[in-house]
Amino acid sequence: MDSQWSIAGQILLHFALLSLMAIGGGVIALSPEMMRFMTETHQWVSHQVFVEAFTLAQVAPGPNFLFATIIGYRAAGVIGAVAATVALVGPPALLAVLALRYGNRVVGRSLGTRIRLAVLPLSIGMMAATSWSLTLMAVQTIPQIGLFAAAVAVLVWTRLNPLWLIAVGGVLGALKIV
Hints:
Shape: globular
Distance between the termini: 37 Å
Subcellular location: Cell membrane
Family: Belongs to the chromate ion transporter (CHR) (TC 2.A.51) family.
Main location: membrane
Number of helices: 7
Oligomer: single chain
GO molecular function, one term: chromate transmembrane transporter activity
Strand content: under 5%
Number of strands: 0
Keywords: Cell membrane, Membrane, Transmembrane, Transmembrane helix
């Protein structure tokens, strides 16, 4: 069994490398890889714990990457929570500082344009992969498929605030309907 320090170190390294790829969609786009690393590769948390932490971070006010702090805590206590948070905040913050400092030198050049054009499909693809992975994990029964389809339809064809759909899903889940 790994010690908390060893687990925290592995989380720090893996999440820091992942956070360097968090372009456009942010850390949320990397959640499938985080889930695989935490639940399948190392089995430090269960799929259920991961989904619950992810969902809680999405509905709670504040940064939506906080699910990583929660799963870091579940895997290695306070040191795991700190490692996960620092790994997700540190590298992108450093890149942002460097971009602010040196970015104006390439914005008008062809390199800056190529970078911006390359990042757009990457961001869309990462968000699609995240949506697909979370859907496959969370939607498993016929009632869940129906609720999922209805929620997607409402989101696509209306301007209803998604919080209402989350509330309805929560009530139906609490009543064991889905």
